[in-house]
Every structure is written in structure tokens, then in C-alpha cells.
């Protein structure tokens, strides 16, 4: 009886079509949670809210991948963004929703949360796209990481994220005066334009304004201030590399396109330059590579045939050498003939295609 009591409980079987979201159970839990919250028993309802959030965790990444949002934003970020909003969605959920005609309409919890989650994914996608912009290292000005001015809310959130991220930025100069100058330049690059600055200010005017202000504020030479500005641009690009979209190279595109083949593995072995040559010369050709076992067997056949040729290819020699390699006389004779054909010097090497012109004449 003790052994029976310690057996793990079997998980309840979910209804058909509810393998990633137990809608029947979670819908009842959501109704109970909403009722307790309406009665002011929010603390007592916390376990139910936790159960609802946990019950959604398997559905959210599946939905993000099905809709293709994971191609731009990683699944973990999308899942976390949606999970943080589940409580608000449940507050807005109306299980007894009625349509415009006054008739009760189906408003299942799974359908409702799916729509809300997709909106959350779109919001996260838009937010990421604002500071993941095309930029080139030859440009004079560093693009704002926090996006366009039309998205003020997203810009503020991204700006704070950038500032938190830059707390670990370090410099190689230990002079307080120079460190303050660099910090001033970095803050000026990443912050919004201060009052009184024209919106149509060019990149050159922005650079001159920042370097001049930094030089005066921290009593450094203008040339040193210009160097610090150039270094700050480099440091921000390097430090925020994973936040910025860099245009893919030809090699990157090929690696992504052939991600589910062995071509990227071959590229790692022979390098990009040799890969381009293989593509240019053998593109479209199917090449069957031998296995290690096949290569070993081929070399063993070579050693056996070389030994037969060395000692004489009479039947007795063939039988004796074949027995040494665990083969019958017939098999050893067949292998010897095959290797003689394979090792023909005319099958390999470099032979003039047109021969000797003098001899031809």
C-alpha cells in the first residue's frame, strides 16, 4: 500500500483540441478570479491568477511562432511582454459578452487571450523596430536608438532601457575631467534635443555643438573633445551592437537560407572564400561524400591489393593474402581487379587536353 501511495498522480486528460490551453478549466478559474476581485478579495484570488498565468505559458510562444513574430523579436521577450499584461486582459474579459443585436455571443477565454497576445506582440515588435534601424559605420551621426518622434511612448521606454544598458560602459582614461567630458558627450548623443535646438539641425551642426559644449564645460581642448566624440560614436556602436540591425552580408544571407542543410557546416570547415569558389564551379551539382567507414574500407582494399601485386597475383597468393584480411579467394580476386581499375594512372592527374603540338604536326 505504501508503494501505491507514493506513485505520481496522473495528469488529467485534456479535452480534444485543448492540448496547449485547458480552456474549460482555465475559463472557470478566470470567472472565479473575476468574482473574487469584484468582491474585494484580491489577495485571496492571487493563487487563481498565478494558475491562469502559468496555464498561458505554453500557448504564448506557440502563438508567437505561428504568427511569425519570433522572426524579429526573440520568443522569450514576446512571452514575457504578454505574460505581464494577462491580469489586465482578464479584467477586460467579459464571459457573458453580447453583440450589437443583444444576443449572447461566444467569447471564450482562449480566443480573447489570443487576440490580446497578438496585439501585445505587435506592440513589442513596433517598439523594437524603432531602435533597430539600418545604419552604416561611415555615417557621421549616430542614429537614435529609441526611434522616431512619432512614437513618444516607445521612445521614452527605449531611451530608459539604453541608459540602463550603458551603466556598464567603461573608458580607458582615468582622469575625472576627461571621464566627465566623455560622459557629457555620450549623454548628449543619446538624449533628445534640448530646448532651443532646431529640429532640422544637421549632423555636422550637432557634432560641432556637442564637441564645443563639452570642451568648454570640462576645460579640454577642442581637438581632444572631437576625438572623444569620435570615440563615443564607436563605443556606442560597439556596446549597442545587439540592439542595432546591421545589413546582412552575402555570407549571412546564405547561412540563413541554408540553415536547415549541411552547407553552413561545410562553410565553417573550408571558409567563405573557398565556399564561393565551390558554388561558382560546382553549383547545382550533387556530391555524395563517403563516410569514414567507407574510406577505411577503401584504404584496406588498397593495402590488400598492393600486397597481392607485390607478392604476385597467382591464385595461391590471392587466397593467402585474402585470408589474412578475412576475405575469401573469390572476394579477394574481385577486390584486386576493382582496385587495379581504380588505381589506373589515367584516372587521375593532369593530362594535356590538346597533347603536344609538335608531335601532332
How would you characterize this protein structure?
The protein is mainly alpha-helical. The chain folds into four domains: about 10-130, no CATH class; about 150-245, no CATH class; about 250-280, no CATH class; about 290-345. It has 18 helices and no strands. The protein has helices at about 1-5, 25-40, 45-55, 60-65, 75-85, 85-90, 110-130, 150-165, 175-190, 205-220, 220-240, 250-255, 265-270, 270-280, 290-310, 315-325, 330-340, 355-360. The longest helix is centred in the N-terminal third of the chain and has 23 residues, at about 110-130. The radius of gyration is 36 Å and the shape is flat.
Characteristic key phrases:
about 60% helix, about 0% strand, 4 domains, flat, about 350 residues, 18 helices, mainly alpha
Amino acid at each position: 500500500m505504501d508503494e501505491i501511495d507514493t506513485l505520481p498522480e496522473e495528469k488529467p486528460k485534456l479535452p480534444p483540441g485543448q492540448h496547449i490551453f485547458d480552456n474549460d478549466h482555465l475559463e472557470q478559474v478566470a470567472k472565479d478570479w473575476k468574482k473574487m476581485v469584484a468582491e474585494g478579495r484580491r489577495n485571496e484570488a492571487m493563487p487563481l491568477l498565478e494558475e491562469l498565468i502559468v496555464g498561458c505559458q505554453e500557448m504564448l510562444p506557440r502563438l508567437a511562432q505561428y504568427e511569425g513574430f519570433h522572426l524579429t523579436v526573440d520568443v522569450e521577450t514576446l512571452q514575457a511582454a504578454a505574460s505581464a499584461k494577462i491580469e489586465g486582459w482578464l479584467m477586460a474579459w467579459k464571459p457573458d459578452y453580447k453583440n450589437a443585436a443583444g444576443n449572447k455571443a461566444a467569447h471564450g477565454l482562449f480566443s480573447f487571450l489570443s487576440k490580446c497576445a497578438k496585439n501585445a506582440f505587435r506592440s513589442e515588435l513596433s517598439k523594437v523596430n524603432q531602435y533597430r534601424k539600418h545604419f552604416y559605420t561611415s555615417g557621421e551621426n549616430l542614429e537614435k536608438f529609441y526611434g522616431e518622434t512619432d512614437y513618444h511612448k516607445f521612445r521614452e521606454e527605449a531611451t530608459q532601457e539604453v541608459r540602463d544598458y550603458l551603466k556598464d560602459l567603461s573608458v580607458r582614461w582615468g582622469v575625472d575631467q576627461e571621464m566627465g567630458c566623455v560622459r557629457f558627450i555620450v549623454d548628449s548623443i543619446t538624449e533628445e534635443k534640448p530646448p532651443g535646438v532646431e529640429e532640422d539641425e544637421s549632423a555636422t551642426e550637432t557634432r560641432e555643438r556637442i564637441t564645443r559644449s563639452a570642451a568648454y564645460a570640462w576645460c579640454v581642448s577642442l581637438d581632444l573633445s572631437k576625438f572623444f566624440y569620435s570615440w563615443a560614436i564607436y563605443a556606442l556602436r560597439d556596446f549597442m551592437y545587439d540592439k542595432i540591425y546591421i545589413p546582412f552580408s552575402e555570407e549571412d544571407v546564405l547561412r540563413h537560407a541554408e540553415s536547415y542543410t549541411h552547407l553552413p557546416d561545410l562553410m565553417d570547415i573550408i571558409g567563405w572564400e573557398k565556399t564561393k569558389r565551390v558554388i561558382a564551379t560546382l553549383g547545382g551539382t550533387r556530391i555524395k561524400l563517403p563516410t569514414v567507414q567507407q574510406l577505411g574500407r577503401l584504404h584496406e582494399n588498397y593495402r590488400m591489393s598492393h600486397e597481392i601485386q607485390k607478392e604476385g597475383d597467382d591464385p595461391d597468393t590471392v587466397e593467402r593474402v585474402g585470408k589474412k584480411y578475412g576475405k575469401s579467394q573469390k572476394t579477394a580476386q574481385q577486390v584486386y581487379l576493382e582496385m587495379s581499375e581504380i588505381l589506373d594512372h589515367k584516372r587521375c592527374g593532369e593530362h594535356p587536353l590538346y597533347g603536344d603540338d609538335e608531335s601532332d604536326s
